[in-house]
Amino acid sequence: MSYQDEYVGSFPKDFSYGPFEQNGENDTASLQEDHKPRILLMGLRRSGKSSIQKVVFHKMSPNETLFLESTNKIVKDDINNSSFVQFQIWDFPGQIDFFDSTFDSDTIFGGCGALVFVIDAQDDYQDALEKLQLTVTKAYRVNSNIKFEVFIHKVDGLNDDYKMESQRDIHHRATEDLQEAGLDHVHLSFHLTSIYDHSIFEAFSKVVQKLIPQLPTLENLLNILISNSGIEKAFLFDVVSKIYIATDSSPVDMQSYELCCDMIDVVIDISCIYGMVDETEVTTTFNSQSSSLIKLNNGTVLYLREVNKFLALVCILREENFQKQGVIDYNFLCFRDAITQVFELRNKAQNAAKDQSDLDDLPNGARESPDNAIENLQAQIP
Ligand SMILES: Nc1nc2c(ncn2[C@@H]2O[C@H](COP(=O)(O)OP(=O)(O)OP(=O)(O)O)[C@@H](O)[C@H]2O)c(=O)[nH]1
């Protein structure tokens, strides 16, 4: 799996250890990366932005985030772990002033797919709401296609009543603020999140799904699969991050999602311990042979099948429906073929788009990369 942290820019100097400085990569690579959708993580200091990124995409345990240092520069993180889940996450320092003249909002917000604004629900959130309004206003003016996602975060410390009350209050005040700014048509999505349970993975799944243009096709394929196989619920998981990139159209209940996540953990753990070693001495932990079946004591079966190196299908079904496993397996193979075709089409379209934009770039040569814009911005962070 290739996860790559890129520490962008050159301030403060003793932190300049990004790949561009380290191995002299030029900006061509970064321009190619720019074709990927970008998710910006913003919010006040200590709201939990870096923790979210580390827990969801780098397998950091929630307790370890207690020792994370404050982010003092924009951290760019490439998420390349599957052909469908390809994007960049830019983690912004809480103290950054987006409205400073050196902040190149056109470049930063221009290529942005989603803006995740993190609000610490355990703290007084008045300042956070003000910053949210400013950020949304600024970003929307540059790029009206951005999906705005508000994470009401750290809700693990709140009881259920207070959780709901905070969500209502934040929703109400944020929408009112936007109306005052003349942006009542801008849609904000709200999610209650915590790194101490699965809510952060669920919320991020929803953010990522909005960036997958093939989502309706994937959902359709899953609907066809479950209706022909007696399956109750099916998730298409990105195995490493445990975010689901698609599910069938029946409602998702948190417990089912948690069960499926736990199953992935079990499969990965067992594979790591007992995984086969191939000729190259590389442990092939998750491969085309990977599958798993767990029978629960309530008559439910969890069934996992590998779709490709990065994706797994996890299904929940009644035990009596699993008696026709042959049908399920056959339908799964058809489903896997269809997914492969979607991948191929998508890759073709992406390559064509890249070739076109490479051609477009040639005459001007010096297209400003977002990294340059970030470097300008780093210089103003105290
Ligand atoms: N209780 C609780 N604490 C959390 C949660 N997420 C993050 N934290 C804690 O919040 C503190 C700040 O987290 P960071 O991830 O460093 O916050 P940040 O927004 O990146 O901060 P800056 O880099 O200063 O902008 C850490 O001590 C985390 O352990 C959560 O879901 N629940």
From TrEMBL:
One GO BP: response to amino acid
Keyword Nucleotide-binding part of the UniProt annotation: yes
Localization: Cytoplasm; Lysosome membrane; Nucleus
Catalytic reactions on record: GTP + H2O = GDP + phosphate + H(+)
GO molecular function: enzyme binding; GDP binding; GTP binding; GTPase activity; molecular adaptor activity; protein dimerization activity
Chief location of this protein within or outside the cell: cytoplasm
Cleaved signal peptide residues: none
Residue numbers spanned by region Disordered: 353-382
Zinc-finger listed as a keyword: no
GO cellular component: cytosol; Gtr1-Gtr2 GTPase complex; lysosomal membrane; nucleoplasm
InterPro entries xref list: Gtr1_RagA, P-loop_NTPase, RagC/D
Superkingdom of origin: Eukaryota
Gene3D superfamilies: 3.30.450.190, P-loop containing nucleotide triphosphate hydrolases
Any Pfam family: Gtr1_RagA
Keywords noted in UniProt: Cytoplasm, GTP-binding, Hydrolase, Lysosome, Membrane, Nucleotide-binding, Nucleus
Similarity comment: family membership: Belongs to the GTR/RAG GTP-binding protein family.
Protein name listed in UniProt: Jg4016 protein
The species this protein was found in: Pararge aegeria aegeria
